[in-house]
Amino acid sequence: MRYLMRPNSSLAKRITEFAAKVSFESGPIVGLQIRRTDKVGTEAEFHALSEYMKWTEYWFRIQEYRHGKAVKRRIYVATDDPTVFSEARKKYPNYEVFGDAAISNTANTRSRYSIESLYGVIIDIEMLARCDYLVCTFSSQVCRMGYELMQIRVGDAGDNFHSLDDLYYYGGQQAHEQVVVESYQAESKDEIDLEIGDTIGIAGNHWDGFSKGTNRRNGAVGLYPSYKTREKWIIVPFP
Question: CA angle 154-136-220, nearest 5°?
Answer without folding.
Answer: 120
